[in-house]
């Protein structure tokens, strides 16, 4: 069974640009969550999608948005990039929604560098 | 709100020695608890989790953790460290109010030959 895949793995952007990251969950998983990982802030929850609906959201500005498609694939978008957005963005999938009820399986992440 | 404290951002052990990574949580209600491992340039992999039942939880790669409600702790142990255990380890706790996983800041484990 294929794991969670994220594309691209590495990305370099400049301030002010926007970026879209993609996540394909494990087959059959309907919940996708996104996390930002930085050395200073650690792992922070961005949002969770289930059945194309955002079920939960972390404390991030509106520049961070996401969506989920009918095949459960998810995209995350960051507009007007800032230097502080440089991070490893991790996607995780699980069978059902509710982050505490089911095991999350993480992808390898997309490393975003903002210059 | 829930919080997780991992004591020691770096832990070094010799190969074959006991591994002990500490995790304390803040909750009056027994939460769900998780340990994840992250190898360089990879995502997080679940080592083990505690939901209900037996307080000693066995995970993959020889790791285990014990849920101690009285101490609000969920420390991760492995009797004998292997070089391949070198990685960063994250403790996480469920926040039932917000339905989120709260991660600790991580502990980087180094294993020396």
Description:
The complex is a heterodimer of chains A (115) and B (113). Chain A has strands at residues 5-7, 10-13, 19-24, 31-38, 42-50, 53-57, 64-68, 74-78, 87-94, 105-106, 110-114. With 115 residues, chain A is mainly β. In chain A, the strands form two sheets. In chain A, strands 2, 4, 5, 6, 9, 10 and 11 form a seven-stranded mixed beta sheet that branches. Chain A has a four-stranded antiparallel beta sheet with strand order 1-3-8-7, with no helix packed on it. In chain A, a hairpin with a 3-residue loop joins strand 4 (31-38) and strand 5. The model of chain A has no long low-confidence stretch (mean pLDDT 92). Chain B is an all-beta fold and 113 residues long. Chain B contains no helices and twelve strands. Chain B is globular, with a radius of gyration of 13 Å. Classes of the chains: A mainly beta (115), B mainly beta (113).
Secondary structure topology:
The complex is a heterodimer of chains A (115) and B (113).
Chain A (H helix, E strand, L loop, with lengths): L4 E3 L2 E4 L5 E6 L6 E8 L3 E9 L2 E5 L6 E5 L5 E5 L8 E8 L10 E2 L3 E5 L1
Parallel strand pairs in A: 2-11
Antiparallel strand pairs in A: 1-3, 3-8, 4-5, 4-9, 5-6, 7-8, 9-10, 9-11
Chain B lengths: L3 E2 L4 E5 L4 E3 L2 E2 L7 E6 L5 E7 L5 E3 L5 E5 L4 E6 L8 E9 L4 E4 L3 E6 L1
Parallel strand pairs in B: 2-12
Antiparallel strand pairs in B: 1-4, 3-9, 5-6, 5-10, 7-8, 8-9, 10-11, 10-12
Compact summary:
The complex is a heterodimer of chains A (115) and B (113). By secondary structure, chain A is mostly beta strands.
Top keywords for this entry?
heterodimer, A: about 120 residues, mainly beta, seven-stranded mixed sheet, four-stranded antiparallel sheet, about 0% helix, about 50% strand, B: about 110 residues, six-stranded mixed sheet, 12 strands, globular
